[in-house]
Specification:
With 243 residues, the chain is of the alpha/beta class. It is built from 8 helices and 13 strands. Helix 2 links the parallel strand 2 and strand 3. The longest helix is centred in the middle third of the chain and has 13 residues. It is elongated. It starts with a strand and ends in an 8-residue tail after the last strand.
Amino acid sequence: MNKIYVIGIGPGNYEQMTMAAVQALEESDTIIGYTVYVDLVKDRFPGKEFLTTPMTKEVDRCVMAFEEAAKGKTVSMICSGDAGVYGMAGLMYEVGAGYPDTELQIIAGVTAANAGAAVLGAPLIHDFCLISLSDLLTPWEKIEKRLRLASEADFSIVLYNPSSKKRADYLQKACDLMLESKSPETVCGIVFNIGREGEGSRIMTLAELRDTKVDMFTTVFIGNSQTRNLKGKMVTPRGYRNV
């Protein structure tokens, strides 16, 4: 049976890639992915065949992977972060329905929520949710509802894809929705260029976050009502000291 690994390579640097991901890439003949992600691993895996497609060509990328595997190659499809969190794993299974002779193996990776949380401190110790602000594949009305309900439920919230040239005001709109249920003093944080050159972070209030400029390389963390700024670190208590 043909074999494709679907691999989350983490936030970008080799050191935050799992050992399982490294082993699978070493076993592969061909590594396929979005151009930016392939460029992150090329130097570490010399001698491999690398194939890329630009953004918005995800289906083409998946078909390419299955076609290469059909030639008898061991193939890796790579994604940033975790392949099962806003990654390619789901689409690979969908496209894979047409390739019954190919086995998929998903290799977990470190998603931006985990890597960014480690930079900020401990913001995700209690219940939290991930919400993407990109309305490319999800209607804004549905994103809006999720933001409102997650805020009302007092989740800590991680926002992916918080802004772009076409969505310059989406973080501001999201903050306005969350401010309906959350205090303006809610502790928040941002981390940019996670695991890459130029990594940095800031901690601020929700009111301050509303007017903060971010980009697609920024991950945004909104605390719950218990989250605190402790010596410059964003910390959400689990409640162990109250037991």
